[in-house]
Model the fold of this input.
Amino acid sequence: MIDNGLLVQMLLGALLGLSVYLPLAAGQLSLATPAFYAVGGTLAALLSTRWSVLGATAAGGFPVLSLLLELVLGGALAGTLALLVGRLVLRLRGIYLAIATIALVEIVRVAILNLPFTGGAIGIFSIPQPFTDASGYLLTALILLVLTGWICQRLDTMPLGRAMAAIRDDELAAGCMGIDTTRVKLTAFVLSAVVAGTSGALAAHFLNTWNARQGSFDVSITTLAFVILGGSRAWLGPVVGGLLLTALPELLRPVGDVRLVLFGLVIVLGPVLAPRGLVSPELLERLGRWGSPTREQKP
Amino acid sequence: MSTALLEVRDLSCRFGGLMALDGVSFSVASGEIFGLIGPNGAGKTTLFNLVSGLTPPSSGSVIWRGAAITDLPPHRRNRLGLARTFQNLRLFDDLSVLDNLLVALERHSRSSSVDGLLCTARHRQAERQRREAAWQLLEELGLSALADRQAGTLAYGDRRRLEMARALGTDPALLLLDEPAAGLNPAEKEGLCALIQELRQRHRLTVMIIEHHVPLLMRLCDRMAVLDFGVRIALGSPNVVRRDPRVIAAYLGGDASGETP
Done:
């Protein structure tokens, strides 16, 4: 039932979950992930179909090195956009930030829909393939996920990660303790955008076609559900949430239309039965403090 | 006065129709313990917020070692050497006691985020130094046994001390203490008094302290200012302030013309 294609989608889901998790680890509820995902995907789709220097063949093939370049460029473009937008929107707090980031998602969606070179509602299709089957995508997505997870894990033992946690707890006190809260929040926001942009670039090739609907408000909510179901207190949470919630609609396909009801039920019941997420702090404690720093020993 | 560590000059703060502070001026010399008293709503905490940069003043200026810092954000002021505690305790409740201190000790780091990601020798050394400094502060304030505990689960007195430790972690020259003795029993208050003296010696601090417990403050402070309805009504040594008729009328409860209570 789970083939390589679904696995790639699940890994992309986990990556998007981490993209929502990163700003949240600094207490910022950003729903902008789909905007950056769309920017990365559109860039990759445009470059690989329009720019022959990258080496797309007439048979639809594409060099892996060019794909890697696109992943970097997709992440960089999304990160730059986040840097510019973040300076403005990160002044807002809580629900106001969420609303501003939804606006960003809409602006990017409408822009991609209406720009003369992004293919309108049909989008861009026949995106060249760097791999002959899904296993190549699987490996690439897995490497991206391991890399992102590793960064999140390292953050826990770094000043930046601790500053993010401090801001999540009490932004005002963090400022009084010498933390440049604007800079830390902006860094988390840019990291989130880089993860989403890179994922988008990979997804564009994997899906073979790309259009404005890839980065809609629906995706904001779905990716937020990854974090809520999985848990927002450790990076493993959104990974688990992303994997499960991406797989679920496919696994439920045999039951027909009822699957949407069941999917909705999981999203509703998840927070009721596990309010701190599937990967809760208590679970981490029992797992020998996986995904959080080891217990302190007095030197 | 050029030797002043901190000077507030003609500081006013208006919240809508309420004048929380009205043209308050004084200066704090390096090394002294400076007390701030006044009835509830006199503007003491507002003054701390203006000095630490949380609230912008309506007019007037805050001067640090001779240079105006009125426009600097809180983190920049902290890095200049100005740290504070909060009346309503604002710890990082979800972090461990040790991590609360490590957050404050970040400024000692010479290693970048790239060092941190790659776990370079420079990062490991900076972490080791931070941890040593954190343990030293925990020891000093008697919190070592609680290092692993979540800050939010501590007892009230321990939370108060952790807030002081965290402020000290930023290596301040001036420490602003907002009602550090609130909610402590008399024995704990005595302990706190000794602790503040001791910390001042060891960290070469200047201390500014808001306190409602007047006898404690009279004993602790070199000089003090009295606020009433946002106006500074007295300034000077405890003995001078104690005899000021306006203070007696506004705060100490005697009658304006009468004897010292």
